[in-house]
Amino acid sequence: MMPSQKSLLRVFLLTTGLSLALGFLVGLPAIPIPSSTRATSFHRDATVVHAGPTLLPTKSMPGTQPAGLGSKVFLPAFLPPWIARDTVRTQVSEDIFFLEQAQTFVNVSVNIRSTIIRLKNGKLFVHAPVAPTAECISLLKDLGEVAYVVLPVTAVEHKVYMASFVAQFPKAKVYVAPGQFSWPLNLPLGFRVDGILTDENKEMMPFKDEIDYTGWFFRPFTGSISEVAFFHKKTKTLLVTDAVIWIDNAPPEILKQKGIAPNVWKKMALQACFLGPPNLDTFEEIKQKLIVSPVIRILVVSRAKREVRDWIARVCRWNFERIIPAHFSAPIKAGPKDLRDAYSFLEEEEGKEGANVAASPSPAFGFDLSAFNLGGVTGKGRKRTVVFPEKDTKILDALNKFVSATGLAD
After folding, report:
1. Is 288 in a helix, a strand, or coil?
2. How many C-beta neighbours within 10 Å does residue 165 have?
3. Would you give the distance in Å from CA 127 to the centre of its chain?
4. Residue from 199, 256, 259, 261 nearest 231 by CA
């Protein structure tokens, strides 16, 4: 293969396969729980009796002006809708809010979430901003003054909105996960960066007294992969992007408004997770559990086992009681034990206590896929890992081999 052909191939795969793995996943649904009659405060009962992860209620919030179709346009968007891009605002607690939008890939509609934290001084910390439509910006400004905007991952569909978003808030400080590059070419990001979210830079962060963070970084593909997790100390809340997901029976509110029924939602959720034809039996196996998405497990974690394992260990030093991912349902009542359980397949692979792993090396491509033999129980009291049927992971496995064979994982 000629160098120019290989470069084109790298760009093509980035925009189609790996951008889905590290980007499209970030556009997966975040399903609000049916709203209660009042805002629900956090209760510190997660560590009293550990009953496993559950979903916590949220409260829908009214829209603000401007209204109408003109307030819902954002061009160019990474994925449709380009015109009627609604934004739903949800209240999680007194100080935490969601802004969620829908986006569509072929016949799969999913959503993307930004989490807003109101700090002690009343100013706002914006995690993973969504498309800055007029409606979105109005809903955000209604909550207070934006002081900090963070890009927690290198995923395309989060990064693509950053320049336009931060332009709306010129006084806000902007911080990004390490390893950023422009897509599809390594050009300037197009927005000011005030700091990189490395562990070494923690002391310089102006929000350090209220929000801690830790990240992981890996460079296996064209570009880099990283994710930074944040811990809001006051509410004991963990913010992640791709680390874990929770899929509920019902579609998120933003999709309900578009008339997507629960049976259609189940198929969409499966297609978003496996990038292939839906097997409804599998939905019953993965729903209402704290899991690592198949896309992330197969295409990312298999190549960065040590980095991810060490990151999860650092994250679990925080005494968090709930998790807010950028995809699917949230907030999730869960603590360090639940997060360790979700990643127990990494320990299973190492043959730790109670493991039941059959190694599956791939001589042709040099990668050990034993992390996906998920039938065992790892560690003392550790839960059985969710099993992904082979028939569901065929497309991901093929893409994984293609990435390896073409040298994109070098």
Report:
1. coil
2. 26
3. 11
4. 199
The encoded tokens of residue 211 equal: 């929000």
Task: Render 185-215 in DSSP notation, one character per residue.
Answer: S----SS---EE--GGGGGG-TTTTTEEEEE
How wide is the angle at C-alpha 159 spanned by C-alphas 163 and 296, nearest 5°?
Answer: 175
**pLDDT tier at 375 (50, 70, 90 boundaries)?**
very low
* pLDDT tens-digit map of 120-175: 999 999 999 999 999 999 999 999 999 999 999 988 878 888 999 999 999 999 99
Tell which residue, 250, 245, 244, has the closest CA to residue 264.
Answer: 250
How many angstroms from the chain centroid is the CA of residue 40? 24
Q: In the numeric block, which tokens belong to residue 387?
A: 């099993």
CB 226 within 8 A of CB 218: yes
Question: What is this structure's pTM?
Answer: 0.80
Collapse the DSSP code of 237 into the 3-class scheme (helix H, G, I; strand E, B; otherwise coil) and give the result: strand
Distances 58 to 26, 46, 91, 255 between C-alpha atoms, Å: 21, 17, 6, 16
Cβ atoms 185, 216 nearer than 8 A: no
Please report where in the chains the tokens 């990151």 appear, as a residue. Answer: 311
Is residue 283 pLDDT above 50, yes or no? yes
Q: Are 93 and 67 in contact (CB under 8 A)?
A: no
- Residue 386 near residue 289, CB atoms below 8 Å: yes
Which uninterrupted H or E stretch holds 267? helix 262-274
**Alpha carbon separation from 24 to 78, 110, 140, 158, 348 (Å, rounded):** 10, 9, 24, 9, 28
Question: Which H or E run contains 322?
Answer: strand 322-324
Residue 100 near residue 328 (C-beta atoms within 8 A)? no
Contact call for residues 145 and 170 (beta carbons, < 8 A): no
Q: What is the DSSP letter of 49?
A: S
Q: What are the distances in angstroms from CA 17 to CA 82, 118, 221, 274, 378?
A: 22, 36, 12, 12, 31
Gap between the Cα atoms of 143 and 122, Å rounded? 9
Element (H, E) at 232: strand 225-232
